[in-house]
Specification:
The chain is mainly alpha-helical. The protein has 18 helices and 3 strands. The protein has helices at 2-11, 24-38, 42-56, 81-86, 89-98, 114-129, 135-156, 172-186, 190-193, 209-226, 229-244, 251-268, 271-284, 307-323, 331-352, 357-369, 382-397, 406-418; strands at 163-164, 194-195, 198-199. Strands 1-3-2 form a 3-stranded antiparallel sheet. The chain is globular. The relative contact order is 0.15.
Length: 425
C-alpha cells in the first residue's frame, strides 16, 4: 500500500515550481508575467508568454526530461464486467489495512500530503458508483478519508487544504517541506507560514493550489454521494481560497483551481465559481499553450511540456469545457485549447505506448465520463489513447503487477461499468 500511495504523492506532480531556464532573459519574462497575472492583465500575460516562447526557440514545448513510454502487451485486454466488479477489492483491502488517516497523525508524522487522501476518497466513491463489491465498506473508507481532509482543513484555519510540515521524510514531498521550513525559520517567519504544523500559505507561487484543488474536489464528491452538508461547506472554503489566490506562472498549478471551481459550478450552479474558473484559465492556462509549430498543443515551458503535467492541464480544461454554457463567449477558446492538447499527446500514446498511466487514465476517464464532452471531435484521439492505457492497466491489474492510485483506478472502473466496450478496439 505504501508503494501505491507513494505513486500518488510523487508521480502525479511534485510540489516544486517549474524548472528554471538557463537564460536570464526568460527568467525576467517569467517574473514580469507573474506580476501581470497578479494584476489580472490578460493582454500582458499573453504578450509575455509569446515573448517567452520566442526566446525559448526550438526548446519551446520540449520536455526537460525524457518521457518513458511502456509498450502495451500484444495480448492485453480490458477487464470483463465480472472482473471489473471485483477489481477494486484488493485496493480496498489495502486501504482498510493502511488507513493511517483515521489516526489523525500530526503533520510532521504524516507519510504523504493530502492529495493522497483525496485519491482515496475519489477512488472509493468511483468504485461505489461502478457497482463494485463491498459498497458499504467503500463508503466507509471514503467518508473516513474525507473526514480527515475536513479535519486538516480546519486545523489550517484558512479555508485552503494545507500542506503538512513533514519532517525527516525520505521523499520529494518531505524534502520540499524541509526546505520550506528552513527558509521560513531563517527569515523569522515560521509563525506566518505555519498553523498547527500545516503550511497555510504558498506566498503566491501556487504550491498549495495542487492539494487544495484535488482535496476540494474529493470532498465535493463526498457531498454528492452522502448529501452531508459538512463536505459542501468544506469544498466552499477551498473554492473561496482558490478564487482569492492569483494565477501563477507555473501553468499546471492554475489548472487545479480551474478544476475545483468548474466542479463547484457543476454541483452548485453558482455563477461566481464559473466566472473565477474562466478568469484563471484566461490568465493561467490559455496563454502558455503553443498554437503553432511542431509542438502545437503543448505548453511552452519545458516543465509543463512534460506529458504528466500536460494531462493535468487537460483535466482542468475538460472540467471547464464540460460546464460552460453553449452561448458562453469563452467556450470556443476553451474547447479549442482542450482539443489541441488532446490531439498532440493522445497521438503520442497511441504511437509510442503509455507513459504516466495513472495521470493519463485519470484525465481520460474523467473526460469520457462528462456527458458534455461526448461531442469532442474523433481526431482528438480520446478513445484510442484511453483504450491503450486501459488495456495496459487492466492487463497489469490481473496479477496486481501495476501500482495505480485509487482515484485513477476507481474512475476507470466506473467508466468500464457504464460503457464496457470502451476498452475494446
Amino acid at each position: 500500500m505504501k508503494h501505491v500511495l507513494l505513486t500518488v504523492a510523487l508521480t502525479l506532480v511534485s510540489l516544486a515550481v517549474g524548472r528554471s531556464d538557463d537564460a536570464s532573459g526568460t527568467e525576467k519574462i517569467r517574473r514580469n508575467m507573474a506580476g501581470a497575472q497578479r494584476n489580472k492583465n490578460v493582454q500582458e500575460v499573453e504578450r509575455l508568454s509569446r515573448e517567452y516562447t520566442r526566446l525559448l526557440g526550438s526548446k519551446a514545448g520540449v520536455p526537460d526530461s525524457e518521457t518513458k513510454f511502456v509498450l502495451i502487451p500484444s495480448d492485453a485486454t480490458p477487464l470483463t464486467p465480472a472482473e471489473a466488479k471485483r477489481a477494486f477489492t484488493p485496493m480496498l483491502e489495502r486501504l482498510e489495512k493502511e488507513s493511517w488517516w483515521t489516526q489523525r497523525p500530526k503533520p510532521q508524522d504524516m507519510p504523504y500530503p493530502l492529495r493522497v487522501v483525496a485519491s482515496v476518497v475519489e477512488g472509493c466513491l468511483a468504485a461505489h458508483r461502478a457497482g463494485c463489491e463491498h459498497p458499504a465498506r467503500l463508503l466507509k473508507v471514503a467518508r473516513e478519508a474525507a473526514d480527515f481532509l475536513v479535519w486538516a482543513q480546519e486545523r489550517g484555519g484558512h479555508g485552503c487544504f494545507p500542506y503538512p510540515a513533514m519532517r525527516g521524510k525520505d521523499s520529494r514531498a518531505g524534502e520540499l517541506a524541509e526546505q520550506a521550513l528552513a527558509k521560513a525559520t531563517s527569515q523569522g517567519r515560521l509563525g506566518e507560514v505555519l498553523q498547527n504544523g500545516w503550511f497555510i500559505t504558498d506566498e503566491g507561487n501556487g504550491d498549495l493550489q495542487f492539494d487544495n484543488g484535488l482535496a476540494g474536489v474529493a470532498v465535493l464528491r463526498c457531498y454528492e454521494s452522502t448529501h452531508d452538508e459538512k463536505y459542501l461547506r468544506s469544498a466552499r472554503g477551498a473554492a473561496a481560497w482558490a478564487i482569492a489566490e492569483p494565477a501563477v506562472k507555473n501553468w499546471n498549478y492554475n489548472s487545479f483551481a480551474v478544476f475545483l471551481l468548474s466542479e463547484m459550478f457543476r454541483v452548485t450552479g453558482e455563477r461566481k465559481y464559473l466566472d473565477a474558473a474562466k478568469e484563471k484559465a484566461r490568465l493561467g492556462i490559455y496563454p502558455g499553450q503553443l498554437t503553432e509549430g511542431p509542438y502545437r498543443g503543448r505548453w511552452n515551458d519545458r516543465h509543463n511540456a512534460r506529458l504528466v503535467y500536460h494531462y493535468i492541464l487537460l483535466r482542468g480544461l475538460a472540467a471547464l469545457v464540460a460546464v460552460l454554457p453553449d452561448d458562453d463567449a469563452d467556450l470556443p477558446r476553451a474547447r479549442e485549447a482542450l482539443v489541441l492538447g488532446l490531439r498532440v499527446r493522445n497521438a503520442e500514446i497511441v504511437r509510442n505506448g503509455v507513459a504516466n498511466p495513472e495521470t493519463v487514465l485519470d484525465t481520460l476517464s474523467r473526460i469520457l465520463l462528462y456527458p458534455r464532452l461526448a461531442s469532442l471531435p474523433p481526431d482528438a484521439g480520446i478513445l484510442a489513447a484511453y483504450r491503450s492505457v486501459v488495456r495496459l492497466v487492466c492487463a497489469k491489474s490481473r496479477p496486481q503487477s501495476m501500482q495505480i492510485p485509487p482515484g485513477a483506478w476507481g474512475l476507470a472502473l466506473e467508466l468500464l461499468s457504464k460503457q464496457s466496450d470502451l476498452g475494446s478496439e
